[in-house]
Amino acid sequence: MPESFRRAHTDEQRKIRSEVILDTTRRMLATTRVPDLSLNAIAREVGLAKSNVLRYFHSREAILLSLLTTEYTTWVTNVTATANDCTSPEALAAVLAQKACAQPLFPPLLSELTNTLEHNITVDDVVNFKTQILHQVKTLTDFVHETCPELSECLDLPLIAGIHAHICYAWGVGHPAPTLVQASATNSAIPSHAGQQEKIMRELITAHLRGLSAPPTRRDRAN
After folding, report:
1. What does the pLDDT look like over 100-109, one tens digit per residue?
2. Whole-angstrom distance, CA of residue 96 vs CA of residue 119
3. Distance CA 148, CA 95 (A)
4. pLDDT digits (tens, 9 = 90+) for 113-123
5. Alpha carbon distance 47, 153 (integer Å)
6. Which helix (H) or strand (E) is 209 found in, with range?
């Protein structure tokens, strides 16, 4: 029996097999959209039966969730390494966008989080993912508060949720469906923003951060 089909018996072998599955999935996502990637396709590429892949991950979503954990951690690490470049909301937005776009798997995985990746997984999967991601969210939030004093009073949830939303939206419009590109080419009234994801992301996050840093209006204070 080929080596790739032998069952892993030790913790080290199971770890290696899990990494092979993750690396294979990561490679496949370079050419396949997240919604289009099936567990069967992953199993075939790895060289395992689907039932054997499920010995290491409970579902396709669990594999993708593990990849997102790594991607999110890398993004936060890269952003927080640029403290000297993030002295204003505009500069911070530029770094957030640039670092997100430098990881082509991060935005599409983040886009599928609530609708797809957090479904068809176990409670243990959720607890493990949330524990790690919430730690990274706190790291990012603390970084924003420390590097941009004008944002130090803003609430954590609107701050991070807005950044996430703009990353996902900008990535989507920057990677339009082929039919939209074709329609735009034949009808100038239909815009296509293909390849403009970083610019759009930067502009949207800048507007978001400016709004959070603006002093409250008289109406806001009354409410």
Report:
1. 999 999 999 9
2. 27
3. 13
4. 999 999 999 99
5. 52
6. helix 197-213
